[in-house]
């Protein structure tokens, strides 16, 4: 019996890469053959190029919906801004709502500027079909920014803000292995899947049956919109999985310069995890590290807010 794959994706001023993105989706269709049908829910807003026109033409030969709006919203970078996360949650929920009357077995959530292999969908579907407690599987999306923790690695995990481990630790920024806890780091290095509290990575697969629950939506009021979405999946007793072998890629055009305060803060977190044994010597080390974490977290927060104020007055 043919199964249905729903795909949601957000677009804005995407003309420079849109044909590559759409070709990748076409390759997924070819790879999965006649066993799967595809339905697309695309959302585009405020484009000043031909993004909307290209999407409309591409969907003419396919099942899908294009939702397009002129909102005059600013163009956000990938920054932890509440205004941005609220807007991103709204856009994603619009896509999801357009599928409310559609029956589908799998939901793929894809950032439109992600690069991935032709067999990625097939690999992700195989994993979720063979692991009944997997509610959501996310990719290991690497960016073309070198690892600042292991200088032998030329790339680093892309979506560290959406990533939280089961203890609530935020993912390490600009690290090929983005995990803090030793057990998770070992799994990652062994190419084993890691169960987490939250992740996205630019490409994720969710069991279609979970989307029948109306409470499963994005919410950006309290931070990254994916935190809430993943929390709701875990409340249904399903796991969120990051798999190191599900490779995808982000190609930054401009040079990305990591924030020094954030790097020091993350390196202190990683060092702190090595001193978990409750000895007097380790307790003293942890006190020093805690002090350093507080200082550099404050400096990072201060720098971020000063930058935001400067932008408001320019």
TrEMBL record:
It comes from the Bacteria. SUPFAM superfamilies: Nucleotide-diphospho-sugar transferases. This is Glycosyltransferase 2-like domain-containing protein.
